[in-house]
Amino acid sequence: xxxxxxxxxxxxxxxxxxxxxxxxxxxxxxxxxxxxxxxxxxxxxxxxxxxxxxxxxxxxxxxxxxxxxxxxxxxxxxxxxxxxxxxxxxxxxxxxxxxxxxxxxxxxxxxxxxxxxxxxxxxxxxxxxxxxxxxxxxxxxxxxxxxxxxxxxxxxxxxxxxxxxxxxxxxxxxxxxxxxxxxxxxxxxxxxxxxxxxxxxxxxxxxxxxxxxxxxxxxxxxxxxxxxxxxxxxxxxxxxxxxxxxxxxxxxxxxxxxxxxxxxxxxxxxxxxxxxxxxxxxxxxxxxxxxxxxxxxxxxxxxxxxxxxxxxxxxxxxxxxxxxxxxxxxxxxxxxxxxxxxxxxxxxxxxxxxxxxxxxxxxxxxxxxxxxxxxxxxxxxxxxxxxxxxxxxxxxxxxxxxxxxxxxxxxxxxxxxxxxxxxxxxxxxxxxxxxxxxxxxxxxxxxxxxxxxxxxxxxxxxxxxxxxxxxxxxxxxxxxxxxxxxxxxxxxxxxxxxxxxxxxxxxxxxxxxxxxxxxxxxxxxxxxxxxxxxxxxxxxxxxxxxxxxxxx
Length: 552
Fold this sequence. Notes:
- InterPro entries: DHS-like_NAD/FAD-binding_dom (IPR029035), THDP-binding (IPR029061), Thiamin_PyroP_enz_cen_dom (IPR012000), Thiamin_PyroP_enz_TPP-bd_dom (IPR012001), TPP_enz (IPR045229), TPP_enzyme_TPP-bd (IPR011766).
- Pfam families: TPP_enzyme_C, TPP_enzyme_M, TPP_enzyme_N.
- With about 550 residues, the chain is of the alpha/beta class.
- Helices cover about 40% and strands about 15% of the residues.
- The strands form 3 sheets. A 6-stranded parallel sheet has the order 2-1-3-4-6-5, with helices on both faces.
- The longest helix has 18 residues, at about 535-550.
């Protein structure tokens, strides 16, 4: 029997769950990385510790497979906190393997990492010499069953010591309890009586693999269907309205507002999805099916705690023989055809820079059809889900939206690039502000990606702040960014690149794609700051209404 160190035991157990590790090497994790290599784990180096967690996060979102991030203790650990908070709030399983203070006590440079993680809502599992494997398995299964990010800490003085002998039980599958006879029976009765049913799917439905069952249920009922941005095209087919929320069209939103019974599967009904309270009509009955234990929105009339796939299958059985609602889909199709879609953008802008809507439309025609899109946070986030074809729910990775952060895009692209298979091209959309925050990991992406395209919506500003606060008369000086030549930076790091000042300039990207799309291409797109995204206008109106209500 081969003798393993504590770090070796951690890597051994971890290797039965993950194949990829992302991180930055330091004193606190050097023994773990050595052991991980011996266990055959693929290590992808990143250049900032925050990228370790964000890359593992995006890897899971793109593939549905768990990955690990790793940092050293102290400053390496604290550098990863924003990405850790995003993963927790977005309910993404991630394991952060980190060094920690020695068991003999904290040194002057140590911080209370467990307390910091708890403040973010993340549990810490600290390995011991005698139970390194058991604690590792406990941490991983906690992350998977709770859908959250966890910290797996290795005290520095134990990392290279010989691990104790352990008898590890086989991993157990999580149990799912479905309220079939109660809640689902009532849901079936409500759906059977609906004249204008709507099924709204979220990421939870996608992760549960419930798309075919929900699609079949919609066809049985004659229901319209929609999805959150993170379940885009999951229910595509007859009666599909697209995205629910600020990224959708007003025509589609109007139809959703007329639904009399709404089945929500695996969606939290966030303010963005709900258009800040205006998506659903006041008289609609809302049924929510979710793996959680309680409803996530006050509009929910009936809540069923269940696996979305199992619940949809049971509803199909309960509704066997029910007649579909008549005329609802036909009316929706007519109104979608006749109603306005997304604004196509303009050829001319006040400052002579590109209209991001026209740019997004042109890019959709240029980008490879087999694409996985990763987005940083920022004002531009609506242009991809609004204007680009996103083939599958897992092909839109929006890291940063849960925690309202920017700067995680490049790091997320590294993880998604490692997860992307079957010849797909990774497409990163970023603003110039977020791109500068994560700039070090452009080098990581260039090294990791087989085929990647980076689209920078470069308005020389923090665009969301310009529209929210500059429009109120506040000084714009802190909101502006000097024009950065990202194309020059990209070429220096080994990527192909071009500055895009006109739609005709996209020919450089087209030529690169036609030549095989190998490596990384950075499109530095100079866009205007004069176009405000519809979702931001909606958000601003909701914020102003809330302030007025408080003042009144």
